[in-house]
Specification:
The chain is mainly beta. Helices cover 7% and strands 53% of the residues. A hairpin with a 5-residue loop joins strand 5 and strand 6.
């Protein structure tokens, strides 16, 4: 009997050993927007030529990064800053009444089918990640549909890249208004 008890104790000792440490970044949510100065997107736009946008500046604000973008023509006012945080992507915009509103473009940690009221009207719904083919290649991207009074806009966001495609629906027509043609995650060394 004493031998059986001893074997039971020996068998239980390895089970109670401490677990291996969790690697840094394991389980961290993906970041759906580049946060390096010099990141550059070139989009094909619905028959209006290419649109080139670069990250001009990045500022830390608590646990978030505020990413300022500008077009190649130097006009920074066209592009709202994107706030990249553990909660997702948002833009701070001016609401219809002139007040500042936080517009969540993509929330991290939500499940497919979850939706939220959009501060700029309507609601946004997140869908499963899916393969999206654009001129820049094939991306696995999360689809977000913004339904609003004027129609709907669908955007696909890829980790580390941001928006890779945008489709606008008005009435019965769907138009691809943005498709990623090329992407560079950071500035070239000689820039």
């Amino acid at each position: 009997m004493a031998r059986r008890v001893a074997w039971c104790v020996v068998l239980l000792v390895p089970v109670s050993a401490p677990a291996a440490p969790v690697p840094k970044g394991a389980g961290a949510a993906p970041v759906y927007f580049p946060t390096a100065v010099g990141a550059k997107w070139v989009y094909e736009r619905d028959g209006r030529g290419d649109e080139t946008v670069v990250v001009a500046a990045v500022e830390k604000d608590g646990d978030a990064l505020v990413v300022a973008r500008e077009g190649t023509n130097g006009n920074a006012t066209v592009y709202a800053k994107v706030v990249v945080s553990p909660a997702g992507l948002r833009q701070d915009r001016t609401g219809p009444d002139g007040s500042d509103v936080a517009v969540w473009l993509l929330k991290v940690g939500v499940r497919a089918g979850d939706s939220w009221d959009a501060a700029d009207g309507g609601k946004r719904t997140v869908h499963e990640a899916e393969k999206v083919v654009v001129p820049a290649g094939t991306f696995t991207a999360v689809r977000v549909v913004w339904e609003h009074e004027g129609g709907a806009q669908t955007s696909w966001y890829a980790p580390g890249v941001g928006e890779v495609k945008r489709v606008v629906k008005r009435g019965g027509d769907e138009v691809v208004t943005r498709a990623l043609k090329s992407f560079r995650p950071k500035a070239e060394p000689n820039e």
